[in-house]
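2024-03-11 09:14:02 INFO worker-7 job=invfold-0412 stage=load source=structure_tokens
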């Protein structure tokens, strides 16, 4: 897919941010020589990028992918992380103080990944090749997941002696249909392929190659970007609310949401375009 650079996002070091079509941003993790493994600076930038995208009136849909042919991301750069923990060099500190510092560090990391979910715009995550550890945290925070058929996934954390703590254990059980499968892959750290990911609903599309998956994502994003941003962003908000609340709570929230959203002219413009068989154009949000 053809890419045009987005001038407002050129200062970021670890990501390439372009636009394949109007109102669509493509965020590409850009550390391919290290399999797009994450340094601390990368997750801090990720939060800044998605906070900026969330309120950018020139962006209505976001595609998230990884540069290179080998990996979406190999997860956390363990070597770099082992050299710079928040309790490094504090051997004399008591366990309570160490724990508080480490908890702050973990919650800040969680917040950076959660920025993808909090983004007001729909996020389409396109995976290929290696997609392990942090790849699952990151993709679970997206709205739509698709992949190339060569993708190999793993919730890898138990293999490095820890429970996944950046979002997988909170979001993956709500993203797929089988609690048994979730516990199986999380407790064993075994790899699973694109076919299996599709069968349990972790991804909604599998394509022959990374290029084909990105093309499909770009086409889907263009369709979404052509819709009313009031309607699209409201739908994302209400679906995420429904996931975490009762039916009655969500119905009440939806009524309150649409009480102001329906005052926008978007619904009238959409209905009129259907009558006149013309393409509607919606104001920026």
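2024-03-11 09:14:09 INFO worker-7 stage=emit residues=285
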């Amino acid at each position: 897919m053809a890419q045009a650079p987005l001038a407002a996002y050129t200062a970021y070091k670890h990501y390439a941010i372009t636009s394949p079509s109007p109102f669509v941003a493509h965020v590409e993790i850009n550390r391919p020589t290290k399999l797009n493994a994450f340094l601390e600076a990368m997750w801090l930038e990720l939060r800044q990028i998605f906070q900026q995208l969330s309120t950018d009136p020139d962006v209505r849909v976001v595609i998230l992918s990884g540069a290179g042919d080998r990996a979406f991301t190999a997860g956390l750069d363990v070597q770099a992380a082992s050299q710079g923990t928040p309790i490094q060099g504090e051997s004399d500190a008591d366990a309570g103080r160490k724990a508080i510092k480490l908890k702050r560090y973990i919650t800040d990391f969680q917040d950076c990944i959660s920025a993808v979910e909090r983004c007001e715009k729909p996020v389409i995550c396109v995976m290929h090749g290696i997609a392990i550890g942090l790849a699952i945290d990151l993709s679970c925070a997206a709205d739509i997941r698709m992949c190339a058929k060569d993708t190999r996934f793993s919730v890898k954390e138990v293999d490095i002696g820890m429970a996944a703590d950046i979002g997988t254990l909170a979001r993956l059980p709500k993203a797929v249909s089988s609690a048994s499968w979730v516990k199986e892959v999380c407790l064993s750290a075994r790899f699973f392929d694109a076919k299996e990911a599709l069968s349990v609903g972790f991804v909604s599309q599998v394509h022959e190659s990374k290029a084909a998956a990105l093309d499909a994502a770009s086409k889907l994003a263009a369709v979404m970007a052509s819709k009313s941003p009031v309607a699209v962003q409201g739908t994302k908000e209400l679906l995420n609310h429904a996931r975490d609340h009762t039916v009655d709570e969500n119905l009440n929230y939806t009524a309150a949401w649409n009480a102001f959203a329906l005052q926008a002219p978007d619904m009238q413009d959409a209905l009129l375009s259907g009558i006149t068989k013309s393409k509607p154009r919606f104001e920026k949000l």
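2024-03-11 09:14:09 INFO worker-7 stage=report msg="The two ends are 26 Å apart (CA to CA)."
2024-03-11 09:14:10 INFO worker-7 job finished
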